[in-house]
């Protein structure tokens, strides 16, 4: 009896970790979206002076874009949309810049809708100094705008079962 309960509990936990989507072969596809920070894009960076420290500029609230429903019927297998996210001094996204071809416009709109709600910890530059006793303390702090480049990836599977059980193991 204990073994049966253990097997049932294990099966239940595994079922909670996996997501299965099934669509008929002739029906619309199953879409997903993800994003990553783009590789070095040659963007300018703030130059810190001696005694200056930068903190923040970390993503706090974020949801990936939704796969556009209108594109599920054509189900392109892979679409990548590069975008520059411009963040203001309060940590709110002020603009999302991209130059997508016409075929990517529904995906670009999905990126804009999602990224506009993202929230970052504001980027602050603080200047530190030491007093006569050698104790350091901040002299001044200033919030700065910043931008980050991302690549948004949209995938669609047409007529196939899609199973995801969490992060994939790293490959070398």
TrEMBL record:
Q: Gene3D superfamilies attached here?
A: TonB
Could you tell me what this protein is called?
Lipoprotein
Q: What is the lineage of its organism?
A: Bacteria, Pseudomonadati, Pseudomonadota, Gammaproteobacteria, Lysobacterales
């Amino acid at each position: 009896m204990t073994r049966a309960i253990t097997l049932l509990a294990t099966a239940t936990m595994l079922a909670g970790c996996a997501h299965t989507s099934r669509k008929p072969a002739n029906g619309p596809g199953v879409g997903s979206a993800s994003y990553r920070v783009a590789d070095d894009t040659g963007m300018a960076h703030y130059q810190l002076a001696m005694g200056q420290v930068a903190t923040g500029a970390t993503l706090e609230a974020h949801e990936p874009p939704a796969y556009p429903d209108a594109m599920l019927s054509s189900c392109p297998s892979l679409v990548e949309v590069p975008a520059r996210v411009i963040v203001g001094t309060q940590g709110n996204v002020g603009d999302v810049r991209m130059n997508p071809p016409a075929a990517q416009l529904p995906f670009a709109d999905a990126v804009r809708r999602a990224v506009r709600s993202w929230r970052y910890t504001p980027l602050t530059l603080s200047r530190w100094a030491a007093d006569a006793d050698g104790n350091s303390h901040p002299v001044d702090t200033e919030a700065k705008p910043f931008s980050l480049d991302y690549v948004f990836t949209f995938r669609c599977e047409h007529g196939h079962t899609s199973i995801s059980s969490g992060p994939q193991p790293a490959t070398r």
